[in-house]
Amino acid sequence: MLTRIDHIGIACFDLDKTVEFYRATYGFEVFHSEVNEEQGVREAMLKINETSDGGASYLQLLEPTRPDSTVAKWLDKNGEGVHHIAFGTADVDADAADIKEKGVRVLYEEPRRGSMGSRITFLHPKDCHGVLTELVTSAPVESPEH
Ligand code: CMX
Ligand code: CO
């Protein structure tokens, strides 16, 4: 079951400048950053709410790492802006299988690695009224030490 918005993915030309815009304008700070070579992105996750139970929402700012990446291609065509939305689920495998049954193209056979150790897959935008849609299961939250 999809239970929340995990993040909104925003494509940008210059990650550092875009991070600075979100900090200066809204006060959002970088919670996490990483390079995901498989996806061809350098990314910054800005945490929007304060939960620490794996149910937080983020903005995912994305800068391409190579000209043939999906985000680079998208920026060439569209310029900067909202690239995808991501719904959170406890079981990305089950939700992807259910959605595939409904005739929506799921882009990966098996979920791949996303931000912060999450598992992700994507639905084709042409089957989702023009919205590239990601499904995310967050990495398990470490339980506090007793
Ligand atoms: N949102 C909406 N529509 C999109 C889109 C997007 N982000 N990206 C592509 N499209 C549309 C295009 O406009 C195009 O439509 P038209 O045929 O009407 O012009 C069509 O989909 C095909 O687009 P394309 O430019 O030829 O691109 P590809 O088919 O090569 O790739 C897609 C499209 C969705 C398969 C590819 O972007 C993909 O695999 N995405 C998933 C991975 C990804 O986006 N990774 C980066 C984010 C990583 C993360 O979130 O962690
Ligand atoms: Co994403």
TrEMBL record:
GO terms for molecular function: metal ion binding; methylmalonyl-CoA epimerase activity. Keywords: Isomerase, Metal-binding. It is an enzyme of class 5 (isomerase). InterPro entries: Glyas_Bleomycin-R_OHBP_Dase, MeMalonyl-CoA_epimerase, MMCE/EMCE_epimerase, VOC_core. Pfam families: Glyoxalase_4. Residues 4-138 form the VOC domain. Its EC number is 5.1.99.1. One of its GO terms (biological process) is L-methylmalonyl-CoA metabolic process. Belongs to the methylmalonyl-CoA epimerase family. This is Methylmalonyl-CoA epimerase. It comes from Streptomyces guryensis. The lineage of its organism: Bacteria, Bacillati, Actinomycetota, Actinomycetes, Kitasatosporales.
